[in-house]
Structure formats: C-alpha cells, structure tokens
C-alpha cells in the first residue's frame, strides 16, 4: 500500500513508519514540520519525507491524499501546557486543519485513519459523585472503564481551557462519523491511552521548552538532579502503553482488508498498567537509582505543585483513564504485552543514551542553585 502519514515526524509517527517499512511491502510517505525523529529512515528506499505543514501547504496535502491508499492523520498539538496557554492554536490545528484533511478524504474517496485521544472521555463519572456518596465500597463497585461506543464524554466549564483539546478532537470525531454516514467516508479512529517509549516528546531543558509531558519532565529532573513536580500531589491515574504494543495495533488497523475496522473507533491502551503519577515517579526514581545513578549527582527533590500554577489557570485534570480494549482484542486479535516496569526501563534507557551527556552540561535552574 501507499501510506501517507501526515504529521509522521512525531513520537508515534516515527515508530509507525518503522513498523510499516519493516513489513517490506508498503511505500511510506511522511510529512511534518520537523524530521529529527525520522533521520534514521530518510535513506530507506520505500520512504519519502516532505517538510510540510498541513496548515499552510494545502496543495501538497491534497496531492498526497489523492495519491494515497490510506491517509493517517497524526497532526496535532497534544501537550496540556499548550491547551491552557494557546487554546486557539489547538483549535485551529487539531480541529480546523484536521477537518480539511477529513473532507479531502471524503471527497476523493480515500481511507482515513484519524488519531484522536483518550482525553475525549474527559474525567470519569466517578469524579462527579459527591464525596459523601463516594464511599470506599461505592468506589470499589464503580465501573469506570472507558468504552468506545457506550461511554459518555465529560468536560468542564469554558474557563478550564484544558478541554479545548478534548472538545476539538471530540467534534472532529463526530464530523468524521457524519462524513462516514452521509458521504461514505471509510475511516478508523484511534484513541491512544498514554503511549510511552523511545523518542517520546523531548527533554525540556534540551530545547528550553517546558511543554513536554510527564515522562520527559521527570527524566529531565533525574538527569539534572532538579525537581520532580507532582501536580496536585500526583493523585491522577493513567494506564501507560508501550509504543511497540501500540504500533502493532495501529499497523493491524492500517492493514485491515476485511472492512471490519471501517467506521470504528479504537481504544489503544493497556488497562493492566494503571498507576498514579506519584507511583510512576517512584518507579522511575527506583529504576534510575538501580541502573543509571552514579551515586554522586543529587537525586531530584519531589514536590507537590498546584496544577493551575504549573500548567496555567485553565488547567483541570482527568482523574483516571482505563481503556476497554475488547474491540481491538476481538477484531484484531491484539493484546498489549509490555508491563509498566519494563516500559519505563526501556524508555529510560533511550533517554539516558540520547540526553545524559547534554543534560549534565545544562546549568541547574537558579532557584535550585540558590538553595
Ligand atoms: N504531571 C505531573 N508533573 C509533570 C507533568 C505532568 O504531575 O511534570 C501530571 C499531570 O498533571 C497529569 C499526569 O501527570 O495528571 C499526566 O500528564 P501528561 O502531561 O503526561 O498528559 P496527560 O496524561 O494529562 O494527557
């Protein structure tokens, strides 16, 4: 197949491109505004890369869509800091520009695999239950698993700008569903649940950019002996999924020729890997101490910080996200294999190799030096 990966230069796209090229039969065309994560693939005979932005390069995007057997749209801002600080940009890219691609696919009769997010489910219904009713017995009996075709979606008030991402993706999914219903668009939607692995975001201090997500923030603190910030005490829980598991599932959706994945949304996640942020941080520190610490450099101080201070006043959090993966199991015979400790270890290994020497050269933040 000729597979076009729009936004293929990011963490997920770079792994997906590798997986597809390893199959030996696909031609893979990737576009992005940065190709750092694709350098190792640029000379591959079946791989083509275009430095291109779907926001401005509409003509090239149209030509690539037309030339494709399958279009995979990975273009998105997907970092909570941006949702609170620049919500308009999130809406324009994650909804308006993505919508144009979906409309092109419908018009040209091309199959679309659209990346969405587990965040469209929002916080769980349990988080809305008044504390006096949420007894331990009630909580233990509550089913908060998130299922593609039956779970309701929850967001917060408008001043919580964090939800611009979830609601942009939510509306995009609804419009794509309608394009399928009314114009015959052949699509699959993918909802990733906290994928982690090599090439995840980047080390914040390496680019003087604090937008990366949790794993990268904690790695920065470990490699530089600075601070691990637990937002609101680190009580939020997530289910973490190793990128190799995720890409195996995405690849099977792309290669599906039975039509069974058409006009379906898929949760891709590992319900067995749930951990709170504080548990995740503890595990990272533990593994770092055992495998990489020289016994000399200071270990990070772990502090709790208010979310609205850390991410901006529009921040709100999802309490838990547990995927129901029955659909992927039944239609694709897929199941995730990587446990939490192994996926942290493997990702940490890649961060240490890529960043340790550069991170050591970066000065510690002034506040920490003064202490
Ligand atoms: N978080 C944290 N410290 C950080 C970065 C994130 O405690 O330095 C928390 C964040 O508030 C959320 C969880 O970690 O509860 C996961 O955040 P991430 O940025 O990875 O993205 P999300 O899963 O919310 O999309």
**CATH architecture assignment:** 3-Layer(aba) Sandwich
Rg for CA atoms: 21 Å
Structural class: alpha/beta
CATH topology: the name is Rossmann fold
User: How confident is the prediction overall: mean pLDDT?
Assistant: 95
Folded structure, characterized:
This protein has a single domain (76-357), classed as 3-Layer(aba) Sandwich (Rossmann fold). Helix 1 (11-22) links the parallel strand 1 and strand 2 (27-32). Mean pLDDT is 95; it is low at 366-371. The chain has 371 residues and is of the alpha/beta class. It has a seven-stranded parallel β-sheet with strand order 3-2-1-4-5-7-12, with helices on both faces. Strands 6-15 form a two-stranded parallel ribbon. It is built from 14 helices and 15 strands. The longest helix has 22 residues, at 87-108. 43% of the residues lie in helices and 16% in strands. The structure holds uridine-5'-diphosphate (UDP). Uridine-5'-diphosphate binds next to helix 8 and strand 9.
Summary keywords:
371 residues; seven-stranded parallel beta sheet; globular; two-stranded parallel ribbon; Rossmann fold; 14 helices; binds uridine-5'-diphosphate; disordered C terminus; alpha/beta
Outline:
Helices cover 43% and strands 16% of the residues.
Layout: helices, strands, pairs:
Blueprint lengths: L1 E5 L4 H12 L4 E6 L14 E5 L6 H10 L2 E4 L6 H6 L1 H22 L2 E5 L20 H6 L3 E2 L16 H21 L3 E6 L2 E2 L7 H4 L6 H11 L2 E5 L5 E3 L1 E2 H13 L8 E5 L5 E3 H15 L9 E5 L1 H4 L11 E2 L2 H7 L7 H22 L4 H5 L1
Parallel strand pairs: 1-2, 1-4, 2-3, 4-5, 5-7, 6-15, 7-12, 8-11, 9-14
Antiparallel strand pairs: 10-13
The protein binds uridine-5'-diphosphate.
The site of uridine-5'-diphosphate has 15 residues, from helix 8 and strand 9.
């Amino acid at each position: 197949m000729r597979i076009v990966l729009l936004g293929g230069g990011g963490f997920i796209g770079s792994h997906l491109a590798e997986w597809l090229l390893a199959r030996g039969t696909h031609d893979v065309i990737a576009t992005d505004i940065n190709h750092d994560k694709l350098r190792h693939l640029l000379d591959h005979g079946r791989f083509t890369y275009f430095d291109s932005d779907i926001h401005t390069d509409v003509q090239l995007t149209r030509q690539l869509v037309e030339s494709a057997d399958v279009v995979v749209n990975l273009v998105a801002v997907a970092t909570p800091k941006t949702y609170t600080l620049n919500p308009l940009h999130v809406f324009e890219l994650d909804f308006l520009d993505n919508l144009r691609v979906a409309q092109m696919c419908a018009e040209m009769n091309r199959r679309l695999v659209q990346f969405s997010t587990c965040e469209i489910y929002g916080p769980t219904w349990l988080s809305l239950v008044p504390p006096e009713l949420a007894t331990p017995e009630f909580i233990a009996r509550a089913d908060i698993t998130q299922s593609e075709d039956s779970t309701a979606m929850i967001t917060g008030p408008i001043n919580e700008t964090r939800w611009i991402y979830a609601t942009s993706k939510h509306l995009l999914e609804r419009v794509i569903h309608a394009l399928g219903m009314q114009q015959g668009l052949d699509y699959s939607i993918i909802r990733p649940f906290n994928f982690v692995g090599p090439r995840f975001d980047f080390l914040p201090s390496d680019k003087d950019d604090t937008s990366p997500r949790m794993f990268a923030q904690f790695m920065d603190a470990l490699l530089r002996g600075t601070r691990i910030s637990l937002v609101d005490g680190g009580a939020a829980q997530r289910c973490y999924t190793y990128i190799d598991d995720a890409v195996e599932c995405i690849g099977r959706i792309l290669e599906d020729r039975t039509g069974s994945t058409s006009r379906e949304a898929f949760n891709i996640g590992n319900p067995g890997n749930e951990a709170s942020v504080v548990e995740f941080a503890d595990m990272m520190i533990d593994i770092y101490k055992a495998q990489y610490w020289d016994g000399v450099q200071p270990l990070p101080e772990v502090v709790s910080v208010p979310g609205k201070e850390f991410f901006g006043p529009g921040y709100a959090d999802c309490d838990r996200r547990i995927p129901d993966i029955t659909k992927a199991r039944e239609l694709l015979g897929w199941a995730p294999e990587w446990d939490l400790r192994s996926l942290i270890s493997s990702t940490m290994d890649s961060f240490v190799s890529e960043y340790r020497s550069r991170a050591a050269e970066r000065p510690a933040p002034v506040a920490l030096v003064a202490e």
